[in-house]
Amino acid sequence: MNLKDKTIVVTGGAGFIGSHLVDRLVKEEPEKIIIIDNFFLGKHKNIEPAIKSFENIKLYYQDAGHYEKMKNIFAIENVDVVFNLAVVPLLTSHNLPKITCEDNINIALSVLELLKEGMYDTLIHCSSSEAYGTAQEHIMTESHPLKPTTPYAASKAASDLLVESYENTFDLDTAIVRPFNNFGPRQNEGSYAGVIPITIERIMAGKQPIIHGDGLQTRDYIYVSDTVEGMLQIYNSKVTRGKTINLATAKEITILDMIKAIAKELDYEGEFIFEGERLADVRRHRGDITLAEKLFDFKVKTSFDEGIKETVQWYKKLMHGPVP
Ligand SMILES: NC(=O)c1ccc[n+]([C@@H]2O[C@H](COP(=O)([O-])OP(=O)(O)OC[C@H]3O[C@@H](n4cnc5c(N)ncnc54)[C@H](O)[C@@H]3O)[C@@H](O)[C@H]2O)c1
Predict the structure, then answer these.
(1) CB 50 within 8 A of CB 76
(2) Residue 285, SS3?
(3) Is 59 helix (H, G, I), strand (E, B) or coil?
(4) CA–CA distance from 232 to each of 10, 12, 46, 49 (Å)?
(5) What is the pairing mode between strands 81-84 and 122-126?
(6) Reduced to 3 states, what is the DSSP secondary structure of residue 209?
(7) What is the pLDDT of residues 232-280, one digit of tens each?
(8) Pocket lining: 63 vs ligand 1, CB cutoff 6 Å
(9) Could you tell me if the CB of 46 is within 6 A of ligand 1?
(10) Residue 88 φ then ψ, to 5°
(11) How many Å lie between the centroid of ligand 1 and the Cα of residue 237?
(12) Which atom of ligand 1 is nearest to the CA of 179?
């Protein structure tokens, strides 16, 4: 399968991973790309490069969880495939757990209902390694139990179960992408920002970087362009249907080492501040990518060091000059 001449919806397309996916989709020469985003954390500047390079991009400023309004959009757009990336993020779930869960589950339900009704053909749904909770096995395969530790993670796990149940009950064309921690340009640096943009911004502002907990918690950091490539491969490869597939590097890095790598890139030689643990933080994450390798020859192209270099350079430009 390929995406040439297809009409593609990307929910959350103005966000971090979604906007990189849109950039990548342009190269597939689709008929049209439709971004559906309510701009909770999405930014117009994230999608400006794609809008400049491809004339057939349409943007709906819309809550993807509002089923009736989504149905109106799908009724006029003749959609073939949906990449479902819209999300209320983890850190929001610390303050607003109910809204986070309601929104994330409603988003999944609305794209599932539309699929069931034949309003489009294929759903590629974006999960998260957070759905697993803390690693119970050294390396986490897709059969690792779902033991979410935060309301966000629970909403991701619940959405995945909904996708599986709709696929099973109504024989739908779906696949679930389960990325581990992503990093790269355009990761939200404002409210609810993640540790990488916060650390870069603090060091650049002359402040000491903050480490929550002992810094020895690990993550499997995958560069955003590798995740996006994997998402495309998952769509293109029919054998992925009905499956959940990890996208990771199969390597784990401590938060402390990750922050040291950023510090090195920014020539920072000062102290780090250690603060209390983040609420219900997962301790250890390392993804098994055997399934992705077997099904579609998934390969990680960007090393952690290269990715950190690119990311730091991008934030430097963001803070000191025009963003490419
Ligand atoms: N960033 C990571 O490390 C990571 C890791 C694993 C999985 N994921 C998953 O990848 C996907 C994208 O995450 P991201 O990091 O790009 O997040 P992001 O916050 O940068 O992007 C999410 C986008 O969804 C939009 N949005 C939120 N609620 C919406 C709604 N109701 N209707 C329409 N749009 C809405 C936001 O405005 C934003 O543009 C999510 O499904 C997330 O769970 C992310």
Answers:
(1) no
(2) coil
(3) strand
(4) 12, 16, 19, 19
(5) parallel
(6) coil
(7) 999 999 999 999 999 999 999 999 999 999 999 999 999 999 999 999 8
(8) yes
(9) no
(10) -95, 125
(11) 24
(12) 6
Tell which phi-psi region holds residue 248, choosing left (phi > 0), alpha (psi between -120 and 50) or beta: beta
Distance CA 34, CA 79 (A): 9
Residue 104, CB half-sphere, CA atoms under 13 Å: how many? Answer: 29
* Most distant CA atoms of the chain, gap in Å: 58
Residue-wise pLDDT tens digits, 80-118: 999 999 999 999 999 999 999 999 999 999 999 999 999
CB-ligand 1 contact for 100 (6 Å cutoff): no
Q: How remote is the CA of residue 89 from the centroid of ligand 1, in Å?
A: 6
Q: Does position 324 have pLDDT exceeding 60, yes or no? A: no
Domains of the chain (ranges, CATH numbers):
7-186+223-248+286-301 (3.40.50.720)
Nearest atom of ligand 1 to the alpha carbon of 65 = 31
Residues 6+ apart with CB under 8 A from 106: 65, 66, 67
**Does the Cβ of 17 fall within 6 Å of ligand 1?**
yes
- CA 87 / ligand 1 centre spacing (Å): 4
Tracing tokens 């619940």 back to the chain, one arrives at 158
- For residue 279, what are its two tokens? 């609420």
Is any ligand 1 atom within 6 A of the Cβ of residue 61? no
